[in-house]
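The records we work with from here on pair a chain with its fold. These numbers are not coordinates but entries in a learned vocabulary of local backbone shapes. To see the layout at work, look at the sequence and tokens printed below.

. . .
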Amino acid sequence: MRIGMILDDGFPPDPRVENEAMSLMTQNHELFLFCIDYTHKQKKTEVINGIHVHRVHLPKILYSISALAYTLPIYHLILSIHIRRFLKKYQVDRLHIHDVQVARSVFWVNRFFGLPIVLDLHENRPEIMKYYQHVNTRLGKLLIRPATWKRFEFGYIKKADRVITVTEEAAQYYAQETAEPMSKFCVVPNTVRKSFYTDHVMDEKIISAYKDSFTVLYLGDTGLRRGLLTVFEALPYLVPEIPNIKIVVVGKSKEGHILKGYVAENQHEKYVTFEGWQNFSLFPSYIAAADIGICPIHRNLHHDTTYANKIFQYMAFGKPIVVSDCTSQENLVKKYNCGLVFTEQNPRDFADKVLALAKDENYYQEISANASKAIQDHLNWSITSRNLQELYKEENQWIKK
């Protein structure tokens, strides 16, 4: 089968898109990927790991107005022209849309092709948009309407032949809100590939830098909704009990100055290290150097129905995780007994959970072993991608006649 994936972003990198494409190719499908190059520096066509990549060179202004995609039709009108050319050129049999932003363009064009469509929802975009800085400016509130995005999202869920989500909780939410059957949804989490924790080279400088500390690691975007202020507010409870504690933050955001300002104002510099963004190849070294991995995100509808990639990355190296009580990650921790859950935005409770692991070596080792086993037996890509492979294998059962 010739599958046409539609992505409204650059490629590479996009781990989810690449992982899904490569998994489908093991089932003897051909993969053709439509994507965008705003830099005009990449080849228009090339083959990457067997994926036939087709890029369109578009002006950066289109990216700038992408938040208006469901306010003004110009974004989708322009993309629909290029998507139609892509479909004519490659004569694909199935369409696989990556996320809701580009969905309208694809559904418009598909009126002329009548191809079965899989809608792959990487996240709950209408909900998370509510927290974006540009959406909350005066102009943003006037022009960008998450409620409109949600209306279109629900409509395209109804029109699609099948819908992919990243968690069971997301599938349940969409099924309830759209009155579509649960059988229409397929759950494909963003788990780690085995190569992440088996084929890596350790950076001894990183390992050495934290060998004498009790290291609590945070990987990823540091926007305030990610909960790091709660972690820093817990330091007065943690330092007296763990004098050698070190909070290591690998990542950054536009709000990073607020976090650094708080640390400086409270004289916590000795206990916090801001590493900034680092190459993905260094993640295994940072995780190996850590004692605990954390994901303290605030609760909202988006966070309650998704997984942060970092939790699987921590667990792959046997690191117990301490996470906030967002529904999906709380359910995962309880199912696999691979960490502890604290009440979101509660520094005292966060500190208590870290101390429970730091003060009981036997308990720590038990949770560590559970984390590793969960990844090896259940939560690595070779296992979780089977749902995706089965979806395409059983397509005759769900294609609309």
Remarks:
- The chain has a mean pLDDT of 95.
- The two ends are 18 Å apart (CA to CA).
- The longest strand covers residues 30-37.
- Residues 103 and 254 are 28 Å apart (CA to CA).
